[in-house]
Amino acid sequence: MSALGIRHWTARRGLPVLSVVLAVLLGIAVVVGPEQTVVSTLILVFAVAAVVWPDRAFVALAAMTILQSTVARLVGQASVLGVQVMRADDYLLVWLAFGCVLHVALERRELKLPLWRPAALVAAAGLASGLLAGVPLALLVPGAYLALKFWVLIVIGVNSVRQETASLAGWAIGITSIVALAVGALEFAGPTIVRSLLPGFSSGMYRLGLPAVQSLFPHPGVYGWFMAFSSLAALALWMRGGRSRYLVGSLACAAGAVLSLRLKPLLGLLFAALLGLLLLAPPRRRALQLSLGVAVLMLALGSVASSVVGVQIQTYTGADAGGNARNALYRGSLEIARDNFPVGVGFGRFGSYLSVVDYSPVYEAYGLSTVWGLSRSYSAFAMDTTWPSILGEGGWIAVVGFMWLLGVAFTIVLTAARNVQLKAEVRVVATVGVLVLLEALAESVGAPVFTQQPMAILLAFPVSYVLASEQWQ
User: Fold this and answer.
1) Per the CB 3.0–4.6 Å rule, which of 38, 85, 267, 325 could disulfide with 381?
2) How far apart are CA 214 and CA 256, in angstroms?
């Protein structure tokens, strides 16, 4: 059945069925309450869209993950609806995967599983570690999914995206970036007023007497990452022959990253921009223009940026660094890998979401349960990194597998970005992929960029798009 046939079947039979189901849900709302019904209805609509238009559903999921925390806080994170919203990304991802597989089957296409070898190595290491350590399967299976979420999204993307998906994704990210940047600028100018207008938002953080801007995001660090991502995406458009407005947009988003007053997005942005220029070798004139633009930006914001760097370095390397949760996770993961060589303690047991939902005894065994942010009563910093979780749960075998996975993904987008025979939109997306993966690699030292949304899906899209482009070249 062709894609047109699927749409025709849905319009003729699927939509009437959907209408009946929606009517039943509205009736249930009177009994169980509107909150559950709203979420159930949205999930049902998304499930249908995932079968008929998996490419648009993929973009819709990415947009949802960007605004997920904002919506949850607006409706109240502690409310029934707020809790459901915070869990919606994983619900929708499961439905997207199911819809994508069904769509491929109806079109009688072969299901593609790119990069399955390194993913299988990571999965085998984590599962074997868990079985040896006696971890219940109820933790191991979802733990494997969370650890490999980046790969899962690549597989879904490569089987669902179409040539026109790049334009749709570009518009979605562009509009969101402009809104986030505008709200962030207003917040920096009048933090008390802006934050008071957004129900459920905290009073905010301050550093050096300045507001650490978070805009519509749950934390300044997430806002800083998204601004760095948007800056690099605009830079890629400009590097591939785009108008000068893309360079202006890139510098504006870079300024937004600076206003987050976070070190990781700043270092990741500079690392990706400079190394990306070396790898992709743009014309000398464009390199000069970029250097001048970066110089102007650094002169305008240099004093703030240097102070932020100084404060953050002191936080991570000062006298109390041993008690810092992030450093404790690195130290603990190395000890776990040493004691369990070459494996770890299994998925769901260290540095991951499931390790704190069902508080892992590993934290107590390695003396980490007394570290602020890793304790049983307050474990908010347990998911603050990428590599300690991989090393602790899967050992050195999982680290090798995940590095292999990232290495192949990066090679794919780099090769496409350098291939002048590819279509223009494919080279643009590939260039975006090169830059944002470089930034993610730099930031992965201190952030779970490959397992946390919206980072994971936005990083997976360029890789999946380039892989899918082979069918329409």
Assistant:
1) 325
2) 10
